[in-house]
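Subject: for your reference before the review

Hello V.,

The reviewers asked for a structural picture of the protein, and I figured it would be easier to keep everything in one thread rather than splitting it across files. Below is the amino acid sequence we used in the manuscript, unchanged from the supplementary table.
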Amino acid sequence: MSTPPRDTMSAPSRDGSGRNGSSRDRSSRGKQGRAPVVVVAGLALAAAAGFAARGLWPGAARTATAAAAVPVSTAAIVRTDVSARQVVGGTLGYQGAFSVVNELGDAILTWLPAPGSIVRRGQVLFQLAGQPVFLLYGAVPAWRDFGPGMTPGPDVRELQRNLAALGFGPGPADGDFGWSTEAAIGRWQQAHGLTVTGTIPLGEVTFLSGPLRVTAARAQLGTPAAPGTAVLSGTTDTPGVSVSLAVGGPAVQPGDPVLVTMPDGTTTVPGTVASVGRVATVSNAAGQGSGGAPSAAVPVTIKIGQSRIPAGLDQAPVQVAITQQRDRNVLAVPVTALLALPGHGYAVRLTGPAHRLIEVTTGLFDDATGLVEVTGPGLAAGLTVEVAQG
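And here is what came back from the structure prediction:
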């Protein structure tokens, strides 16, 4: 969410603020004036919209005369990192998009995996006239037969690495097709009940970057599939979130942390920006620009901290909180600890016999944690403050 305006009270003295040793991502601070004596307990108005929408605290304020009727609890002042975030919409799904093409020959499709199934290294992608086509991992696509006499190359090195990963020991992965590679292919063929030749014709193996999650069959069983025919569509098995960020919106780069709110509206999972598109495209998903025309947007892919997507939630909408500003190693209290001073400014009330009221300068409001950054004379991590309850 956007950073609310700071209060206008004067900065506290350094020796009592509890800020020594903290580092900040920005250097400006607001000025302050004298604070009135009468206080009104309530929420920080600048952050109320975002926090209340998420149900992070009660919306009712209390006046000084009614304070005794409002139940309170206590919370500790903590030293932590506080972030201001902007929330954008995204779509939950699996990363990547792949098309599996037949290169084996012109034959009838006799077997296809079911949509939703995951094909891993060494497993069968599809069958043509009963002959299986296997998945191997690698960045270089197969483009020639594998056999004795072929020139060394990265495709041979990929094949050798896959044979080793599958337990068939072809020797060093040097990219040179020698007798050890030929023997390893023979052992692999024998393990799968294939005719042992020590060679692999073009199309019998397909190289992809990793496991394939099948999303759809591009051809029908029992129909002929000529070379070049698309047989399957799929993705990786890595869950992620796709976001279209409007040009001029929040800036992100690979590696940036984000927080994803799942479709149930309450569960949050951490995420990391995996990739950011280099070219903006015009899409209705980016929202409407001036005059009602679609806005230009940059595609962003986010990797999330889950091993799979719950059933029925593939392609479901989610909310992504992108960190716009972060203050590190600062003092923070729950937003519901703030007492609004008449006219301007905020204070917190320490627990204990004195119930001492301390004027504070607010910093960032973190709607993901419900904390607000504060500085004030006498504040220190570990002290406890009163917190309003609903």
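For the response letter, the relevant points are probably these. The radius of gyration is 30 Å. Residues 148 and 178 are 7 Å apart (CA to CA).

Happy to draft the paragraph if you're swamped.

O.
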